[in-house]
Amino acid sequence: MPKIITTGNFKGGVGKTTNAVMFAYTLSKQNKKVLVIDLDPQANATDLLLNTMNRVYQKKPIFKETLFEAIKENNLEKSLITVKDNLDLLPSYEDLQGYERYLYSNFEDDYSQDHYFSQQLSKIKDLYDFIILDVPPQLNKFTDSALVASDYVVVILQTQERSLKGAEKYIEHLLQIQSDYNLTLELLGILPVLQQNGSELDLDVIQDAKKSFGSQNIFKNQIKQMARLKRFDRTGITDNIKDINDRRVHAVYQNVIEELNDRLKIFEKGE
Question: What is the CATH number of the domain that holds 219?
């Protein structure tokens, strides 16, 4: 069975998209078949992965249909793009802005609207070991569609007060939708993204997060500020073993994914 994970926070600019893509990239290197679903009209995950295709792998994406058209036709497979070995993408495009309007026009109740995407995803999900969803940082049908389709959530917590508040609101909503629809949706953990690499503010926010969510829910691994990680937006994801900065970034994410898998094993043992 695939493991379907949404990365989230109701505060924008916290590194949610970067981490979603890096999770997927790292898992694909471990011979896991991975799908990234960019369910955000801003298309940042799509931009990063297509940039990686173009600049790093010298591959041109072949677009058969936009994700929104594939959603309307009940055939997500038409929109799939293979980025690299073991890594596929359902890409966002500007027409995805019509997704909420489409749901409101075609389904009368919240349950039908929020479960529609999950029903479509069920047709292809068994092709993958992991499916990672990236969504906007707002309470909307993109977020609810992703949560209903997911097994787990990783909340991305940048070490600033607004991000902490956004994480708290996000988890409140997660618990509410879990209850409303009787979902088997679990919080896999909260991943700290340091704003100033170990400053007093970083430590204070992480300590507050432990009080709010419980220390067991905070990832032990943390994402530090790394210039190379920011550079990937421009260059695509490079992975040169001779480049110390590339090695550092990928080593960090290997550790994060190792912890993520350990957390998954705990939940699976409890099932």
Answer: 3.40.50.300
The boundaries of the domain holding residue 196 are: 3-270
Residue 191 contacts by C-beta under 8 Å, 6 or more apart in sequence?
19, 154, 155, 156, 157, 219, 221, 222, 223, 256
CA distances, 15 to each of 45, 62, 110 (Å): 11, 28, 29
Tell me whether residue 219 is exposed, middle or buried, using C-beta atoms within 10 angstroms of its C-beta: 0 to 12, 13 to 18, 19 or more: buried
| Number of structural domains in the chain | 1
Question: Interior CA angle at 246 toward 240 and 247, to 5°?
Answer: 90
CA distance 117 to 111: 11
- What is the mean pLDDT of each successive set of 10 residues along the chain, which is 271 residues long? 96 94 98 98 96 95 90 95 97 96 97 98 97 96 98 96 96 96 96 88 93 96 94 96 96 98 91 58
| pTM of the model as a whole | 0.97
